[in-house]
Amino acid sequence: xxxxxxxxxxxxxxxxxxxxxxxxxxxxxxxxxxxxxxxxxxxxxxxxxxxxxxxxxxxxxxxxxxxxxxxxxxxxxxxxxxxxxxxxxxxxxxxxxxxxxxxxxxxxxxxxxxxxxxxxxxxxxxxxxxxxxxxxxxxxxxxxxxxxxxxxxxxxxxxxxxxxxxxxxxxxxxxxxxxxxxxxxxxxxxxxxxxxxxxxxxxxxxxxxxxxxxxxxxxxxxxxxxxxxxxxxxxxxxxxxxxxxxxxxxxxxxxxxxxxxxxxxxxxxxxxxxxxxxxxxxxxxxxxxxxxxxxxxxxxxxxxxxxxxxxxxxxxxxxxxxxxxxxxxxxxxxxxxxxxxx
Length: 342
Prior knowledge:
By secondary structure, this protein is mainly alpha-helical. 77% of the residues lie in helices and 0% in strands. α9 packs across α10, α10 (248-285) runs parallel beside α11 (291-300) and α11 (291-300) packs antiparallel against α12 (304-332).
C-alpha cells in the first residue's frame, strides 16, 4: 500500500514539473513601445516618396535612408523583446515619447532641407551629408577626438585634484579661508577663455596653455562647492570624533570629505561643462589639432557638414563622460541612497 502511495506521489510530482515546463511565457504588449518604430516608418515614408527639391545641386547620398532602416530594425527588435521582458518593456515605454519626438524632428529637418529647401543648404546641410562625413572622414575625426580627450582628461583631473584640495583647506581652516577666499572671489568668476591671451604668453606650448586653462575651468567650481560642503558639516560630528582621539587629518578624510561628497560631485559636473567650453576655445586659437581645431578649420572652408559632424561627436562624448560620472557618484554615495534625490 505504501509503495502505491509513493508511486502516485512521484507521478503527481512529475506531472507538476511537466505542466510547469509547458507553461507559456506571459506576453504583454504596451502600445507605447511602438511609438519610435511608428515615427521612423513615417519619416522613412516621407523621405522615400517626396522628391528632392529641383534646385538642390549638392551630391546626394543614400546614407540617411540606410540609417532609418537600421534604426527601424533595431526598435522593432526592442519591441519584440519587450513582449517577454517586463523590465525592458517599462524602460522602453518610458522613453518612447522622447525617441518618437526626436525621430520626427529629424524627419522635419530632412524635409525642410533636401525636400523643400526652406533654409540655406550651405549652412544647414541635409542629414545625409552629415552622415557622409562620418563615413568618409571618420578616422580623422577619431584622431582629433583622441587628441582632445588627452588634453581634456589631463586638465580635468588636475583641476579636480587641486579644486578638492583647495576647497578642503578653505572649508576646514579659517586661516586659509581668510587669505584664499578673497582671491577666489576675484579671479574665479573670470571665464577661463578670458585667460587665453595670457596663457599663450606664459606657456611656450599651446598644449600646455590649453591644459592650464582646462584645469582652471574645473578648479573654480570644484573649490567653491567643496568648501561650501565642508563648512556645512555639523560641528558635533567633529567634536565626537575628536573626543575619540581623531586628529585633523582623520576628521577631514573620514567625516568632512564624505559629508561634502555631494557638493564635490556637483562641482565636478559643473567643471566638466566648463572644461569642454575651454577646450573648444583653446583649440580654436592655439592648438593645431583636435576637435575644436577641426571645427574652426572646416568653418573657414565653409564645410558645414563637417562642422555639424564634429558637434555631434562633442555632444556624444560629453554625454558619455557625464554618464560615467553619474555612475561613479551613485557607487560612491550609495550609503546616501534614499536621503538625497538626484
